[in-house]
Amino acid sequence: MKFFSKLGLIILTCFLFNNANAQNDYATLNVTLQAIQSIQVNPTNKVVNLAIANATDYTTGKSSGALTDHLQVLSTGLFTVSVKASGALTNGTPANDIPLSALTLTPALGSSTTTLTGQVYNTLAGTLTTTDQAFIKATNGTSSAKYTVNYALAPGTGGSNLINRPAGTYSTTITYTIAPN
């Protein structure tokens, strides 16, 4: 019995004085955010057609109407959407070109569910050129902002932008660019 008592005392002493220490280590988690800007023209209205088909169109001009959600933007920070044209509206014969000054592009907020504050919209009325011009400026990033655009063609004084030009299709390419502010 003495032997078991001494053995029990030795075992108890070992447990009391030799507690196992908890060990730990750590890992570092790094999240690297990249600045991202993305812009897309709605595939359903990548081609905008304005048909000048009657006397009223020649005297008052023609509008595409509001192309809802024409542009979709993603930006991780402040951004500017710029717009430019490739050149005058042309049918292939430079003497017949319709000048860019006949065009008006008007932006507005589309059906975005994102709350967007600090938006500045610049209507380009007769000022569209072949160099980038600020069209939309935002003071906040967005994961999915949608913008409506209206394209309008002004007839000019006495229809000068449209009269004395051969019938046919006149085209230019409108390019939208997004960049951080």
Structural class computed from helices and strand pairing: mainly beta
Number of strands: 10
Helix content: 10-25%
Mean pLDDT: 89
Q: Could you tell me the radius of gyration in angstroms?
A: 33 Å
> Tell me, what is the CATH class?
Mainly Beta
Strand content of the residues, in percent? 25-35%
Q: Which H/E pattern describes the elements?
A: HEHEEEEEEEEE
CATH architecture verdict: Sandwich
**Might you state the CATH topology name?**
Immunoglobulin-like
The structural domain count equals: 1
Protein name: CS1 type fimbrial major subunit
Keywords: Signal
Signal peptide: 1-22
Describe this protein's structure:
Residues 1-22 form the signal peptide. This is CS1 type fimbrial major subunit. Keywords: Signal. By secondary structure, this protein is mainly β. The protein has one domain: Immunoglobulin-like (Sandwich). It is 12% helix and 33% strand. It contains two helices and ten strands; from the N terminus they run αβαβββββββββ. The chain has helices at residues 2-17, 55-60, and strands at 37-41, 62-63, 67-75, 79-85, 103-109, 120-121, 124-125, 133-138, 142-153, 174-180. The strands form two sheets. Strands 1, 2, 3, 5, 7 and 9 form a six-stranded antiparallel β-sheet that branches. It has a four-stranded antiparallel β-sheet with strand order 6-8-4-10, with no helix packed on it. It is rod-shaped. 18% of the residues are buried. The mean pLDDT is 89.
Could you give the topology of this structure?
Blueprint: H1 2-17, E1 37-41, H2 55-60, E2 62-63, E3 67-75, E4 79-85, E5 103-109, E6 120-121, E7 124-125, E8 133-138, E9 142-153, E10 174-180
Antiparallel strand pairs: 1-3, 2-9, 3-9, 4-8, 4-10, 5-7, 5-9, 6-8
